[in-house]
Here is the input.
Amino acid sequence: MPQYYKLIDAVHESVSLNLPYTKDGMKVYKFYTLRPGKKYDDHIEDEVFMSALKDAHKRVAYTPEKEQVLKESGAKYEVVTCKVCGGRAKKIDLWFVEVV
Here is the structure.
């Protein structure tokens, strides 16, 4: 059973997410702002919330420096090619929440 969740150490800015949670048997959405270095335990037993939190990721521009920082920190990420521009540009899909 997870104890808390937080932003990964490679993220140094606040992140806002619109995540679902279960309230009175219904799925309800709420905006959450996660700040670097802070641990959270809200809705830790809610399967809907935790599933959405674990899947939360964003696509950022690729640079070799960003990839190196992510490798060194052990963050979960994936380098992808941009489908819109025909694969000329690289992007990084970054899963930025760590569940402990």
